[in-house]
Amino acid sequence: MTELDEVRLSIDSAALRYAQVVFDGCAAVADSTGTELRILDLGAHLSRFRRSCEGLGFALSWSARELTDAVVEVTRRHDGRGAVGIRLFAYAEGEGFLDDEPPGVCVFLRPLDGYAPNRPLTLATTGEPRPAHTDLPRWVKATAHYAGARRAVLRARRAGHDDVLFRNEAGRITETSRASLLVLAGDRLISPPVEEGVLPGVTRELLGMVAKGALGLTPEHRPLEPAEVIGADGVVLCSSSLGAAVVGAIDEHPLPHGAAGALVAAFDRAARGGTAHLDDVVTSVRLLSTGRR
User: Fold this and answer.
1) How are the residues of the chain apportioned to helix, strand and coil, as percentages rounded to the nearest 5?
2) Could you report the per-residue pLDDT of 182-204, keeping only the tens digit for each?
3) Quick one: 265 exposed, middle or buried, by C-beta within 10 A (0-12, 13-18, 19+)?
4) Which of 60, 180, 237, 257 is the Cys-Cys partner for 201 at CB 3.0 to 4.6 Å?
5) In this predicted model, what pLDDT tens digit does every residue of 214-257 receive, in sequence order?
6) 227-234 long-range CB contacts below 8 Å, 24 or more apart?
7) CA 71 – CA 285 distance, rounded (Å)
């Protein structure tokens, strides 16, 4: 296992030339004491990381136990200041297009403060559809998927929006560039299934757990038409880096904030240990030192 400052890759490596890179990441949130970090569903993230590697043809040489130990060891060194993202990257270390050597694996931390503005977010629906079914499945969390997404986000930003909202070839709503989308409709919390062309979001499952336990909502995976998203009782985005955030408008159409804000607040409390709704899927890591004085 390698840390970030030890990674050395040739500019001619398959990782750079052919985008042979898989990654995953989870959030670690400080508890009320500031002496422990709560990693949200590390097991689910490591399972998705392994599935993504298999989807790209990588054979990981590291066991689940070894990956877990590496993540905990790196996380333990955090100074306790703010939320932090834990990143795992698997990358081809050779130069050959079809080399089948096990990938290198890097584990490192990234601060999450300032990842997104602290306000309801605005989205712009993409002009052209993004197909649900491609030669590289959407459930593979690979860097190759993000090149096209970046172009779409840049267009949305130039138009004054925070992110882009994708549609698949059937015209149905899927996800944004780096987050899952969930719709509040009565007592339901609806998100598109993987078959619609979305990443199987770990955080959206955690949000569903909180929605059910704290607010009595029923999580549901089914296709979403644009009209029902615009007409929803609220819309929320979530990811390991973003956490959960209220969507304030889509294509200049304002959305109600009340129910979405309540869900976001409930998720934030559960992530920090203020309620027990996520305790069963939290890995607690005692910090070696903290920024508290």
Assistant:
1) 30, 30, 40
2) 999 999 999 999 999 999 999 99
3) middle
4) 180
5) 999 999 999 999 999 999 999 999 999 999 999 999 999 999 99
6) 228/183, 228/185, 229/173, 229/181, 229/183, 230/255, 232/183, 232/184, 232/185, 232/256, 233/184, 233/185, 233/186, 233/259, 233/260, 234/183, 234/184, 234/258, 234/259, 234/260, 234/261, 234/263
7) 10
- Closest residue by Cα to residue 252 from 230, 223, 237: 230
Domains and CATH numbers, the chain: 4-115+281-286 (3.30.470.10), 121-272 (3.20.10.10)
- Find the radius of gyration of the CA atoms of the chain: 19
Identify the helix (H) or strand (E) that includes residue 44. Answer: helix 42-55
**Rounded Cα gap, residues 146 and 241, in angstroms:** 15
